[in-house]
Structures are given as C-alpha cells and as structure tokens.
Amino acid sequence: MAEEQVGAIREALADIYGEKNEGGLLCCTLEAVNADGMDVSIQVMAETINLAPYPFAEDPLTRLELSGAVDTLESVALDLVDWDANAFATVGTSGNDPADIARLIDQTFVRVLGCSPDYRLTVSTEDLA
User: Fold this and answer.
1) Is the pTM here over 0.90, yes or no?
2) What is the Cα–Cα distance from 13 to 25, expressed in whole angstroms?
3) Sheet holding 26-33: strands in order across?
4) Which positions ≥6 away from 75 have C-beta within 8 Å?
5) Tens of pLDDT along 64-115?
6) Exposure winner among 8, 9, 116, 128, fewest CB in 10 A?
7) Dist. CA 124–CA 1, nearest whole Å
8) Distance between CA atoms of residues 46 and 128, nearest Å
9) Closest Cα partner for 34 from 124, 126, 113, 125?
C-alpha cells in the first residue's frame, strides 16, 4: 500500500515541482485523518513542507529521524526552517528529488503524524501569488 500512497503523493505534487510553478508560490495541501481521528496535514511548497499540527515538543528533524521517517531515504538533506512546539513545523527540502519528498511525506504521515498505512488523502493546490 505504501507505493500506492507514494504514487498518489507524487501525482499531487507534480505541479509544485513542474514548470507551472515558475514563481514557486504553488502550495499543495495533503490532508488525512490519523489513528486517533485527528485531522493532520502537510503543506508542500517548492522548497518546504509544513506539518500541522505538529503535536510534539521536540525538534522536528530529531522526530523525523527517531521515528524512522527518513530511514529509506539515502541522500535527503533537510533543514529546520521554523517550528512551534505542539503547533506546526516547517522543514526545508530544497535541492531534494521530488520522488524522495513524496516518500518522506508518506512516512511522515505514518510514522510522525500517526496515520494508518492505508490512510486516505485529500489534496488541494492553490497559488499563493
């Protein structure tokens, strides 16, 4: 099921990493419901992902590493952009392959945000220009 989810995420992100996003202001919001019944989302822009809510007090990069969300990604470089404990986390993804970002998002939904492996996505994309 993970490959199916990753494929759906890659398809949803196609415009974010494509020619249509010349100014880099397209934002794709991926939403799901976790195992506790809470709505969770990841917003994706050309150079960042934003997790909301981010229900932890620890550094998001540490949480991604300890949860195993980055274990299958060989050469992904992430930077902490901003975060507010128990509210949101924004992680820089600049320079990474979009396919790796799709896998990272899938694993973040499951390993960090608590979604079941067969979670259902709701996708919307908007131009923030």
Assistant:
1) yes
2) 13
3) 79-84, 88-92, 48-52, 39-45, 26-33, 122-127
4) 100
5) 999 999 988 878 899 999 999 989 999 999 888 999 999 999 999 999 999 9
6) 128
7) 22
8) 12
9) 113
